[in-house]
Amino acid sequence: MAQISQISADVQIKCCAEKFYGFFRKNMFQLAQMFPKNLHNGEFLEGNDFTTGALMQWSYDIVGPAKAKIKLADVDEQNMSITYEAVEGDILSDYNFFRVKFQASSNGENGSATVKWSIEFEKADENIPSAEANYLDFVSKLSMGLGAYLATN
Which residues form the Bet v I/Major latex protein domain (predicted)? Predict the structure, then answer.
């Protein structure tokens, strides 16, 4: 029986936690314009706000062209965290279960923050690579790029 694995990374960013979290709450679909090589477009399928239970679809290229339907499994304003869960799409060919969570927290230094990314996944078979090399690296780079952008805007 396959088991759920978890990987995580703490990413230091140059903007405050509130700005980073706020961007994901209000402007997440703009990531497609900021990172066009990897994120092509996103849209709501059910719901029209970044609230728990909303369903969105993304087309992306992290390990090859793909599409996924993503549910907002949890939005926690107080802890500045959002959890996404794949419910349909190409990613579920490789993983039976795929959930991503981030939490932004202030460092208390110069308006900088730490973003903790956690990915839980269950491989569809043992030959599938870990999500670390592709997905965790991608969200880490995205965090640094977005943090630098938000620090200057």
Answer: 2-153
